[in-house]
User: Fold this.
Amino acid sequence: MAEHTSSSITIEAAPADVMGVIADFARYPEWTGEVKEAEVLSSDEAGRAEKVRLLLDAGAIRDDHTLAYTWTGDNEVSWTLVKSQMLRSLDGSYLLKALGDKRTEVTYQLTVDVKIPMLGMIKRKAEKVIIDRALAGLKQRVESGA
Assistant:
């Protein structure tokens, strides 16, 4: 099994508010930094995205890829890579845990495998940077009420 990287952050908002921002793919370019375009290709019966095309520009990694999303209840979403130009795999998840009425612990887990050779240590560092930026952006977006 591939190694993964994970990190957590506490957001001053209810889990439903946090998941609302996570599920709003069209607005990712406004707060994620690396995502330049996001297009929902298909949705489930509940209106949640099942397949999403993302145009990513993360400096060394620029990619146009499609992810398949799986929603588990109201507090977890995970994804796997469907197709990509640069990535062999991209598996991740957000897990939300309520900490009282208006606080949520968000844990982001990510495993990335690129098609070009890369040392494991460098890959883990890149995953950590992606996770930390995503969590900081999510926290700022949710807490700003945007």
Q: What stands out?
A: The first strand starts at residue 5 and ends at 11. The helical segments are 15-23, 28-31, 120-144.
